[in-house]
Amino acid sequence: MQLAFLKNMVDFSSNQPTILAGDLNLRPVEMIEYAGKIFRSDPDRLPTAGSPKRKWKPDHILLYPRPGSAIFSRRVESAVFFSDHSPLYGIASFK
After folding, report:
1. Which candidate, 14, 83, 72, places its Cα nearest to that of 43?
2. 2, 82, 91, 66: CA torsion to nearest 10
3. How confident is residue 7, by pLDDT bands cut at 50, 70 and 90?
4. HSE (CB half, 13 Å, CA atoms) of 2?
5. What is the mean pLDDT of the chain?
6. CB atoms near residue 64 (< 10 Å)
7. Above pLDDT 70, what percent of the chain?
8. Within 13 Å of residue 25, how many CA atoms lie on the same side as its CB?
9. pLDDT tens profile 44-53
10. What is this structure's pTM?
11. For residues 19-55, b (16+ Cβ closer than 10 Å) or e, as one string?
12. Is-contact 29 36, C-beta < 8 A?
C-alpha cells in the first residue's frame, strides 16, 4: 500500500513537521483507518477524481505531527481536466 510506504519515509521520533500530499488512493473510510491516528488530514470530502465528473476523493493532504497542526483554505480546482484528478490546494500551519 502506498501509505505504508510513505509512513516509512517519515521520522516519527523527531516530530519534524511533515506534509504528505497527493494521490494516496485512499477513500475517506480508509483514510480514517490507516492515517487518522497518526496524521492530521484535510477534513473536506471534496471530490478530486473521476471522469468526466469528479465523484470520489483519493487525493489527500496529511500533516505530521497531528497535535498542533491544521489545514486551512482547502479547495479543488475542478475546472482543470488534463487528468482524471483535479488539483487539491491547502494552506497548512504547524505550532
Report:
1. 72
2. -10
3. confident
4. 13
5. 81
6. 21
7. 93
8. 6
9. 778 888 877 8
10. 0.79
11. ebbeebebebeebeebbeeebbbbebeebbbeeeebe
12. no
**The C-alpha cell of 44 is what?**
473536506
Helix, strand, coil fractions of the chain, as percent rounded to 5:
15, 35, 55
Residue type, 40: R
Residue whose grid cell is 498542533 = 68
Q: Which three cell numbers stand for residue 94?
A: 504547524
CB 57 within 8 A of CB 50: no
What pLDDT is stored for residue 23 in this prediction? 84
Cell of 12: 516519527
